[in-house]
Structure formats: structure tokens, C-alpha cells
Specification:
Rossmann fold, alpha/beta, 6-stranded parallel sheet, 18 strands, 6-stranded mixed sheet, Archaeosine Trna-guanine Transglycosylase, Chain: A, domain 4, globular, 33% helix, single chain, 454 residues, 15 helices
Length: 454
């Protein structure tokens, strides 16, 4: 039996082609949703782009017949624009003129004559209100990643024999078929992923260990384990893996994805390796830093000053890390605040580092640059795709963030662009990923304790 899915504006503004994702079912777009997405069509950010695309798609489908009576979708489903049902009764204090309440009235009216009516919304409060009224409701699941604990981590801990570890250092590889993982007190051979990082421990001597990476048909040693990019030493296993991913040339890994809690040095390490690659080895022309901001991307043009002036408040965390990197002497670093500030500003003045709004990357082709996408958990999947496809020849994109700290109102740990990219790029031979844990927090003892407890 076909289901009826009522989509609200949050779905169309999240993904313009979402109405094509419901298979051979009935998709209802309330007339009020058309009004709401129309109000976004002049926005210069992604909301405006999705509003325009959604309008163009619906207009194209309109040519088949009357939207009020239903038109056939390419996948065999039916799209119908439903007129308002203002006669439906809502709780007394609910304003019937609000967009979400008018969508709920449409759902109530449809339920009177149709079974299996579902409201699809990314707005948690709309879903809560729907549940109060007895309306079945769901998030848009088409681009949802697994639950956070089930998402790809880019690393695995396995057991091998002592002789395998000896061979690893002597021969330079280990057969993936010889490694085991322990589940339910049983050892079995895991399914490894290309470019996955591996911690190997001897079965009988757990203190005997080795670090490697899955490459084609073998686990091989890390190549950059002993490197000290821009004077920075890796302090834990996660950072050693992250350093390896960053140090590999763009020809091998043009995309690196790093997930982890605050204080695990995601931004710090990406800047350290970037400065090493730009200033010392000259592999890239410059560092380009982008950081999404859910309020600024749409209103950036209305703020005073240059683009750098407008973005500078977002880059304070980056500058904090640069202060540490440009002066390695911890005792004298903050003796002169003015001298330290000058060192950081010089990097910007010489165009060694430039900053740019995510919204302004659209349509560009960026060549031979070290591109850091900080706080990528606040990207939508569509934005993430748009950024990754902007990389030109010899550029490297480092996408990093904390999936537990999301500011976007319609995103969560399963629907954000960082986790979406991670799951979609899993198994790609040109993408390297690593997740850092709370135990690998290096900011301070307090930051580590807070990451574990709070």
C-alpha cells in the first residue's frame, strides 16, 4: 500500500530534490510550504539556492498536469500540492497562521480519509507538535548517517601474533587475514577498509604493538611517524594517525576527514602541517581556511568592512592556534602581546593564510592550496558536496569538526555534512579518515576531564 508523505519547508530547503526520494509513494507539498520557500528565493546563501532549485523542479513537474490533482514523479510516485485546510481544529493557543501549524492542519485533514500519512520534517519542534496531535512523523532519512557510535572511525585495534609484529618491522607489511578482533570473547577476522588506520597488539603481549595503515592487500607501516611538522610532535596514537593522513601528498589523499571532540588538536595539527607544506616544503601556494556559520553565510554582505573583517570573529580559534605555532617558546610566547599579534598578522598580510566564507566557495576551482574546512559539522550535506567538488589540481582539503557540537537548527549528528561526507567517502582510495577520542584531548587536563564527563 502506498504511503502519503507530507513534506514541510525544512525538507525542501535542506535538499531541493528531496521530493524525488520517496519511491513509488504520494508526496504532498502543502500550499503554505510553497509560500514559505518562495520567501527564501532571494537569499544569497544555500537556503536561497535550494529554494530556487525546489521551485524550478516543481515548476518543471507542473507541465505534466495540475499539481492540485497530482502529477507523476520520475520514480513512479505522485506529487500533489495540497490546499490549506483552515477548518481543522488546533489546540486553542496554537496560532493557525504560523507555517508549521498550517502544515499540521493539512496532515490532520488527510488523516481523516487516508491511512499511512507521515509528516516529514527536519524541525524537531514541528515533529513534537505533530506527535501531540497524533500525526505520524519522521526526519528526512535519505541522507542520514548511522548513529554516532556506529559511524566510520577510520581506525581499528586488532590482535596479531608476536611473530606477525616482528615480520611487520622486518618485512614491512602484515597480511590482513592474520589480524583478529575480539567480540563476545571470541576472536575473528574483521573486514578492513582501504586507508584504515590499524593499532596491532600481540595476543599474548599486549604491550608489544605497532601502528599501520591498510593499503591495497596489506597493512603497511606509517611513513611519516617520525616527522615533526612545523616543530610539532604527535602526542598520542590518534595524532600520529592524523599526522600521517595530513602529510601524505595530495596525489594520494586530496581529502582528509577528521572527527573528534574539542581539544584533540584537529585545527592545530591541520594548521601545523599546512604551514610546513606551504612555508618549508612549498608543496602548496597558501592555506585557505573556511568556517561555516549559520547566521553569517546568509547575512555576510550586510556587515561592514572587508570580507576578512567580516570573518575575523569566526577565526579567533584559528588565531589562538597560530599564536602557539609562530612562537614555540612557551615561557616567552606571551611576554609581548604586540609582537605575537604582529607575527600572526604577517601570515595574513603575506597571503600565506587567507580566509573565506563557505558561501563564497560556490563556483570556484581552487588549485594547489591547503584548504581547511573548520567546524564542518555545521555544513549541510549539499554544502559539503559543493566544497569537496571545488578542489582543483594539487589541492588538499582537510575537513574537520565535532559531530556532538552542532549549531545548525536542522542538523544533528546523523544529518550534518561532516558525517555525511565521512560515510559516503568510506572506502575511497583517495580519502583518508581518522576519529580522535576524548582520551586524546591535549588542550589541558580540564578540557580532557570535561570532554569525558560533560
Amino acid at each position: 500500500m502506498a504511503k502519503t508523505f507530507v513534506v514541510d519547508s525544512s525538507i525542501l530547503l535542506h535538499s531541493a530534490e528531496s521530493i524525488l526520494s520517496f519511491e513509488e509513494n504520494i508526496v504532498i507539498v502543502p500550499e503554505v510550504v510553497i509560500e514559505e520557500i518562495n520567501s527564501y528565493r532571494r537569499d544569497k546563501g544555500d537556503l536561497g539556492e535550494n529554494a530556487r532549485k525546489a521551485g524550478a523542479l516543481i515548476d518543471h513537474l507542473r507541465l505534466q498536469g495540475k499539481l492540485s490533482e497530482g502529477v507523476i514523479l520520475p520514480n513512479g510516485g505522485i506529487l500533489k500540492v495540497e490546499l490549506n485546510h483552515l477548518s481543522q481544529t488546533l489546540p486553542p493557543r496554537w496560532n493557525p497562521t504560523e507555517y508549521d501549524n498550517r502544515v499540521l492542519q493539512v496532515c490532520l485533514a488527510l488523516q481523516e480519509n487516508i491511512d499511512n500519512v507521515f509528516l516529514i520534517s527536519k524541525d524537531v519542534f514541528t515533529r513534537i507538535k505533530a506527535d501531540i496531535l497524533g500525526i505520524q512523523t519522521q526526519d528526512f532519512k535519505h541522507d542520514l548517517s548511522p548513529e554516532l557510535h556506529d559511524q566510520y572511525q577510520g581506525r581499528i585495534e586488532v590482535f596479531v601474533s608476536s611473530s606477525d609484529i616482528d615480520d611487520f618491522f622486518y618485512k614491512g607489511f602484515v597480511d590482513p587475514e592474520s589480524v583478529k578482533v575480539c567480540e563476545d570473547e571470541q576472536l575473528h577476522t574483521p573486514e578492513l577498509t582501504i586507508n584504515q588506520f590499524v593499532v596491532m597488539r600481540a595476543v599474548n603481549y599486549p604491550s608489544q604493538s605497532a601502528l599501520g595503515m591498510v593499503e591495497k592487500d596489506a597493512i603497511k607501516p606509517l611513513r611519516y611517524l617520525k616527522q615533526i611538522p612545523f616543530g610539532v610532535n604527535a602526542r598520542n596514537v590518534g595524532q600520529k594517525f592524523y599526522q600521517e593522513a595530513l602529510m601524505r601528498p595530495a596525489e594520494e589523499f586530496p581529502l582528509v576527514i577528521c572527527k573528534g571532540p574539542a581539544g584533540t588538536a584537529k585545527t592545530f595539527y591541520s594548521l601545523a602541517v599546512g604551514l610546513e607544506k606551504v612555508l618549508n616544503t612549498h608543496e602548496y601556494r597558501k592555506i585557505l581556511i573556511c568556517r561555516p556559520n549559520i547566521t553569517m553565510d546568509e547575512t555576510l554582505g550586510f556587515l561592514p568592512g572587508t570580507e576578512a573583517d567580516k570573518l575575523s570573529p569566526l577565526m579567533r580559534g584559528v588565531n589562538d592556534n597560530l599564536e602557539i605555532l609562530v612562537d614555540s617558546d612557551e615561557k616567552l610566547r606571551y611576554k609581548s602581546e604586540l609582537a605575537l599579534k604582529d607575527k600572526v598578522e604577517e601570515l595574513y598580510a603575506r597571503k600565506t593564510i587567507s580566509i573565506e566564507a563557505v558561501a563564497y566557495l560556490r563556483g570556484r576551482s581552487i588549485s594547489k592550496q591547503w584548504i581547511i574546512i573548520d567546524e564542518a559539522q555545521n555544513l549541510t550535506p549539499n554544502q559539503a558536496k559543493g566544497i569537496i567538488t571545488r578542489a582543483g589540481n594539487d589541492s588538499k582539503i582537510v575537513m574537520l569538526g565535532d559531530p556532538t557540537q552542532i549549531d545548525h537548527p536542522f542538523l544533528n549528528s546523523r544529518s550534518n555534512g561532516l558525517c555525511y561526507s565521512s560515510e559516503k567517502m568510506k572506502g575511497s582510495s583517495i580519502c583518508c579518515q581518522v576519529s580522535l577520542s576524548e582520551n586524546e584531548c591535549e588542550r589541558s587536563p580540564l578540557a580532557m576531564e570535561a570532554a569525558k564527563r560533560m
